[in-house]
Fold:
Amino acid sequence: MTIASIIKRWASLSVLLLVIASLLSGCNATGINNAYADDSVVAPTAHVVDIKDFKFSQALLNVKPGDSITWTNLDIAPHTATAVDKSWTSPELKTGESYTMQVSADTSTAYFCIYHPSMVAALEIVGG
Ligand SMILES: [Cu+2]
Structure:
């Protein structure tokens, strides 16, 4: 094998690598985000919980770190969504008012309404 033929082989290999690289970057140009194309990474979810008839619409809500939860009070009476251990709380929500919270891995999961302690619900944090 001569030096010239080795250089030729390298040259054609380089062209092949360039073609592969441009094909891969072409995928990104179509807007496919590699992080979300990976099945192990799931996009955040925006959860909605209505407060109606003195109940949270989802007694148990499955969430994952990074998700958001929005509570909206549809009752005449004011309510809150407040962690049982008081580590987080919405403000007092009057009729039609909403509060949004981001979920993290260590978010406390059991919550209730400070005005109506029989109104209880919970989050279940999965993944993350
Ligand atoms: Cu309440």
About this structure: The two ends are 55 Å apart (CA to CA). The helical segments are 3-29, 34-37. The longest strand covers residues 46-52. The beta strands are 46-52, 55-56, 60-63, 68-73, 82-83, 98-102, 110-112, 120-125.
